[in-house]
Amino acid sequence: MSETSPNANSNPFIKNWSLDAVLKSIPLPEISASSSPLAFLHIIERLKTTPREGWKRFDIINGESIADHMYRMSIITMLCPPEENINKDRCVKLALIHDMAEALVGDLTPPDNVPKEEKYRRELETMNYICEQLLKPMSPTIAEEFMGLWTEYETGETKEAIFVKDVDRFELVCQCIEYEKKYNAKKDLKEFLHVRRGIKNEFVKKWAEDALREREAFWAAAGVESVVEN
């Protein structure tokens, strides 16, 4: 997410993040490497309870979690038109895994001033831990699949990864408009909408254009001007 409000991120490990420190802060049971998925499931449970930080900066109460965002992304990927010849089943997996590292890294946003290289390093270390320490004892094949999906999304070169990145941006546009409606035009979240410029697939661009027309009509009916830059 991208925003400018200065409110502090709730993640206490932003400046001095280390995987060991985060793991020590989590009350995990003593589970040795085995075929049990429990340790993995306890880790990703945090995706259900970790908020998307950008909304908190605008005083959005009870905003979406990381898991909320990834769930709707997964549904959106299933709406891909068949004629696009995109593997939707793979896209669902990419959507569900692309932010998995945030379970331990948190949702870092531009005002946190964490360089992209450092953000990637933290997420890569986390995914290596999840795959090598938690999933590989269960199944090397599963571990390899998860790591491969995460890497594919990060690399962003396959048509599936490009589409899911588009969906990531489009889902943010939708959520932005929904929060503006929820707060009856008292919160202008237009600065999030710049993400639409990164959308590459023409059919997703049209989805985003439809969303912006809906937003324009909403603000016009509210009698308030909120101009979105082209």
Automatic annotation (TrEMBL):
What cofactor(s) does the depicted protein rely on? Mn(2+); Mg(2+); Co(2+)
* Alphabetically ordered keywords of this record: Cobalt, Hydrolase, Magnesium, Metal-binding
- Which is one GO molecular function term here? metal ion binding
Q: Which Pfam families match?
A: HD_3 (PF13023)
Q: Which InterPro entries match?
A: HD/PDEase_dom, HD_domain, YfbR/HDDC2
Q: Which domain of life is it from?
A: Eukaryota
The Gene Ontology biological process annotation of the record reads: deoxyribonucleoside monophosphate catabolic process
Stated EC number for the protein is 3.1.3.89
Domain HD/PDEase positions? 62-182
Catalytic activity, per the record?
a 2'-deoxyribonucleoside 5'-phosphate + H2O = a 2'-deoxyribonucleoside + phosphate
Keyword flag Hydrolase: yes
Keyword Magnesium annotated: yes
Task: Please report which protein family the annotation says this sequence is part of.
Answer: Belongs to the HDDC2 family.
Subunit annotation: Homodimer.
* Role summary: Catalyzes the dephosphorylation of the nucleoside 5'-monophosphates deoxyadenosine monophosphate (dAMP), deoxycytidine monophosphate (dCMP), deoxyguanosine monophosphate (dGMP) and deoxythymidine monophosphate (dTMP).
What is this protein identified as? 5'-deoxynucleotidase
